[in-house]
């Protein structure tokens, strides 16, 4: 076994010990797992987008708040968002495990590589804290159904209609027609006027003009 950190040339004996069938099997299994996972996620996404009653069974009551009946556009948007998130997570996990098994079958010492990746991940995490915060907030906004496309929301910055949303940005059209791009991690407080029984405040009555003739001075 040789290390990724050494620059020594690979000898014939080391090449002969490489498990090429194991490499092919690892790649094949990784691809197969990814295809199966993608097929399952796509099926679930399609069912949710079509408003399937599969998740309304007793065994799936714990996901009812996230999958309650919604209008078509909003339901499709949420289903696609959750599906994209699941595909990304599964893809990263499958790719990481497949690469580890391939390197193992190539007799590569992956311990230094894992250490380097861990240090790099920590550095990226510190440098991208706000981005990670936005993505986590977007995930919970989507799963908890705090608001969706077509809802009228009120934040500390703007009141308007949600036109689109993803895991990082929510786009809102304000009452004056301006388009606002709100980072999900910075939305600390939001009110959804479309979900409750919102009653607009009464406008104060306009001042009635004084129709009585004014008294002239000296009268």
Protein described:
- The structure is a single chain.
- The protein has 219 residues and is of the alpha+beta class.
- It has helices spanning 12-16, 20-49, 72-105, 111-127, 129-143; strands at residues 2-3, 108-109, 152-155, 159-165, 169-174, 179-183, 190-192.
- A hairpin with a 4-residue loop joins strand 5 and strand 6 (179-183).
- The longest helix has 34 residues, at 72-105.
- The radius of gyration is 29 Å and the shape is elongated.
- It starts with a strand and ends in a 27-residue tail after the last strand.
Number of helices: 5
From the alpha-carbon coordinates, what is the Rg to the nearest angstrom? 29 Å
Question: What would you call the quaternary organization?
Answer: single chain
User: Which class best fits the helix and strand makeup?
Assistant: alpha+beta
Extract low-pLDDT stretches: none
Question: What characteristic shape results from the CA principal axes?
Answer: elongated
- Percent helix: 40-55%
How far apart the termini lie comes to 114 Å
Give the spatial strand order of the biggest sheet: 6-5-4-3-7
Mean pLDDT: 75
Q: Work out the strand percent.
A: 5-15%
Major beta sheet, specifics?
5 strands, antiparallel
> In total, how many beta strands?
7
Write the H/E string, N to C: EHHHEHHEEEEE
């Amino acid at each position: 076994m040789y290390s990724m950190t050494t620059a020594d040339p690979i000898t014939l004996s080391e090449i002969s010990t490489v498990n090429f069938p194991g490499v092919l099997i690892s790649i094949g299994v990784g691809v197969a797992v990814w295809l199966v996972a993608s097929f399952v996620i796509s099926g679930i996404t399609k069912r949710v987008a079509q408003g399937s009653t599969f998740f309304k069974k007793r065994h799936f009551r714990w996901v009812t708040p996230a999958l309650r009946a919604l209008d078509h556009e909003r339901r499709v948007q949420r289903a696609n968002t959750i599906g994209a998130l699941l595909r990304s997570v599964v893809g990263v996990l499958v790719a990481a495990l497949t690469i580890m098994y391939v390197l193992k079958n190539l007799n590569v010492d992956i311990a230094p590589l894992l250490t380097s990746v861990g240090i790099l991940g920590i550095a990226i995490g510190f440098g991208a804290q706000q981005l990670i915060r936005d993505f986590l907030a977007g995930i919970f906004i989507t799963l908890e159904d705090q608001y969706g496309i077509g809802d009228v929301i009120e934040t500390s910055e703007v009141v308007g209609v949600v036109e689109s949303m993803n895991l990082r940005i929510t786009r809102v059209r304000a009452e004056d027609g301006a388009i606002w791009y709100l980072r999900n991690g910075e939305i600390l407080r939001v009110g959804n006027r479309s979900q409750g029984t919102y009653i607009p405040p009464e406008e104060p009555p306009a001042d009635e003009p004084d129709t009585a003739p004014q008294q002239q001075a000296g009268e």
